[in-house]
Every structure is written in C-alpha cells, then in structure tokens.
Amino acid sequence: xxxxxxxxxxxxxxxxxxxxxxxxxxxxxxxxxxxxxxxxxxxxxxxxxxxxxxxxxxxxxxxxxxxxxxxxxxxxxxxxxxxxxxxxxxxxxxxxxxxxxxxxxxxxxxxxxxxxxxxxxxxxxxxxxxxxxxxxxxxxxxxxxxxxxxxxxxxxxxxxxxxxxxxxxxxxxxxxxxxxxxxxxxxxxxxxxxxxxxxxxxxxxxxxxxxxxxxxxxxxx
Length: 221
Hints:
- This protein is α+β, with helices and mostly antiparallel strands.
- It has helices at residues 13-24, 82-86, 115-122, 145-148; strands at 45-46, 67-72, 78-81, 91-98, 103-114, 130-135, 140-144, 154-159, 162-163, 173-175, 188-194.
- Strands 1, 4, 5, 8, 9 and 10 form a six-stranded mixed sheet that branches. Strands 3-2-11-6-7 form a five-stranded mixed sheet.
- The model is unreliable at 1-8 (pLDDT under 50).
C-alpha cells in the first residue's frame, strides 16, 4: 500500500460483524457503574495482553513522513511533523483502557502531549464544541470538546516506555481513557475543532455517540 495514500476503510467482515452487534445489542448487561467505586465497567473482562482491532488496514507511516494537522474552530491552527510534535510539552499518564468488544486492560503507561496542553497551544474559539479525529486509514471518530479535554487524555507516541507499534496506532494515536477505546483514534492524521457535531465511522454504524463504558453506552438508542 502506498503510504502517501489515505485509504477508504474496508467494508470488512469485522465491520459487518460489529454492525450486527449494534443491531442485536450484543454484550449489553443493562447495568451501570461508578468509576469511583468499580474499576471494571459493566460487561467487561480483564486482559493482560493488548488485543489488536482495526478496519483491516494497517497504514505504515514512518515518523519522517508523519504529519498532524490541527484546524477548524481554533485561533492558532497547527501543522506538525514528528519533530515539531515531540518539541511540544511532553507528559506521561497511566490509565486503564476499555474496548467495546468487552476487554479492559489496567495500568497502561503512555507518553505524549496531553490534550489540555494541545488546547492551550491551539486556543479553541468560544464556539468550538466538538472535535473530529481523522486517521491515516480513513477512520474518523467524534468527541465532545469536554471529553477531548479530559484530565488524563493524551496524544501518545509511546506505550510502556517504547514507541507505539504500527498495529497499535503508531507513530501517534489519541488516548481518551474514560470512553470506549474506539474513540481513541489510531494513526492520527488530523484534529478538527467544530461548532457542530459530526458522527464518525462507528457512530454512523449504530454505536453510541459518546461511549461511556461505565454507563454501558455501547450502541445508539
């Protein structure tokens, strides 16, 4: 595959299967939980490995050719190559992750640029309310600005002290730990701040627009 191309997500067997899950309400328990008292969300099981899920495409984007564009309803748009991204304030976070396919993994150590530091750099306009993430495999997902700005959310380049591997979204991915992991876009290419919401790849295929695992927001109503 040409690394310069932005492919269209494949209508794969996985995509069709997960659309069926949404229609059937697969894995729903009907329970809710509070993260302050229960670490594992309803319907989840704990794993020690890190399962790999994608749309059937694994783009190879070398760091010397990677670029992140940040645009839309911001005062200071940015276009960073990898060196410029690494020159921004760096931080580390240790968080749990929860996938809508029912696995959770505790205590993942990330390094990168916190979304709050990113917001301080680009300065969203007063009318900015949403963020749309676009990836090098053609994937998109949407977030409310307040979710993107979560205290432990991070645009990550490393996991457990090593650079993110290609299969896990390297060189750069988003990590928003308090939402299901499909909201944490892999192979991040663009962040667009918007005044209106724009549902992404899974959100238009029956998945919840927000995706809070403790409220079991797996699918849209």
